[in-house]
Amino acid sequence: METLKKIINIAVMAYLIIALLFLLRILSVDKFVALFDMADAAAFYRRLLWAGVLLLLAELLVENAYIATLKRGLALEHRQLTELKAKLYDQRLNTEAAAQTPAPPLDNTVPPPAVDPTRDPNHLAKPNHHRPLP
């Protein structure tokens, strides 16, 4: 598609140069009228006009098709990017969930030492209220 677009652009540029050369009277219309065996210069200009119309129509159609192809490709890449982002998000959620779950305790752990359940380990020995003060 891009190659066709370039070829038509080159043809349009060549047409514009030739048309300008005729309009500026650098090229002789009378010689081309005689060369192509036309009745008069008006017929030559009419054919030149039709050639321009057809070239510009072809350029318009090719440009629109090319733009549609680019948009379609861009939409496809956007969908693929969205899918990849979703997969990455799911992977991150799975790794975070795996990191937050506690590991099961090992079997070779040493049990804590036996403590007297009546004694509170967080407080100092409480004073005896029945003992006389000195």
TrEMBL record:
Key words, A-Z: Membrane, Transmembrane, Transmembrane helix
Segments for region (Disordered): 97-134
Superkingdom, taxonomy of origin: Bacteria
UniProt key word Transmembrane helix: yes
Compositional bias (Pro residues): 102-115
Spans through the membrane: 7-28, 48-69
UniProt name for this protein: DUF1049 domain-containing protein
Species the sequence originates in: Rufibacter quisquiliarum
